[in-house]
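Figure S7 source data.
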Amino acid sequence: MTTQAHCVRTLTLILLAVMPLPGPPPSLRQAADHAGVLVGTAIRPTQLSEVAYATALGREFNMVEPEDAMKWWVVRRNQEAFDFSQGDEVVRFAEAHGMKVRGHCLVWARDNPEWLAQGHFTPAQLSRLLHDHIAHVMKHYAGQVFAWDVVNEALDENGDVRDSIWYNRPGIGLAGKRTRYIERAFRWAHKADPQALLFYNEAEGEELSKKSDAIYDMVRSFKHRGVPIDGVGLQLHISELDLDVAGLEANITRLAALGIQVHITELDVSVPLNPEEELVNKDDLTHQAQIYRSVVRACLQTSGCTAIQTWGFTDKYSWIGSSSHGSRGMALPLDRAYGPKPAYDAILEELTASRNHKR
Ligand code: XIL
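Tokens for the predicted XIL complex:
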């Protein structure tokens, strides 16, 4: 080899070593791992046997939450027994793929079995039922579920406590005492699994409003009085392609300032569809992506916001599109064929950019 050829070869080798070859773009999961944040999705165990579903799930997310599999109507189909088979499937998948599991949910007015909702139990009986449910379910999943939505959707749009079987219909014995029944559930939950992070999860209280003020006041009072609460879940089902970004940011910031974590728990952004299930406005997927971007950015700019989760991940399977939502849909970051939509790219860009900020 001539001296000149030798120099060229050496230079080429040096260049190859310092310039990374263009590889495939990172997944949401890789970007989130680098950013130090959890990126999750709600899942249904029945779909795990579909290879494309399971592959995309394991590649894109480092956290899962059962969409229904840990709710009362699944776990307590009858009064006598607990059925953990569906929830256990979710946990098995997560463990096999190194993902965390969020539990959802222990106390809710909805998605309860008929025998409970129509059972005409006394407050004393309901109190025992709820205590035993929380204790049994949380102990079963101790060490596997790292965070629980202990209480779901307990407040109405005015910030008042909603009527429910657990509060006042007839309630667990604390009817009329506002958030005392919520407090009791958190105390029971902490006893059942002292390691689990305990969340209050709520819908339509993400921006600044009477409802989000009431959530804030409740959590502040809980923290002040030593009620064991670790976080607030902001659901963020968005159906009007409209988000008050400044309000969301301000709400996340004030909640985190209480010393709790904020999780975005049920993010989806639906768009209008025609009867053929096609877009009504061709620009809507771009608007949708902008909203996803704003939510991810709002979370990542506060270190107390530690998880971003979508309610499903492919438009093939979403609770939006069930009859109650009429003509809306396409709410998730991957399309029906598991291809990335503009919303996916927006989430990935924000996660990747946040590597450069200290969280
Ligand atoms: C929904 C599920 O997605 C559906 O499969 C089920 O039929 C009804 O519940 N807020 C919540 C979730 O906290 O539990 C709800 O999930 C969506 C609204």
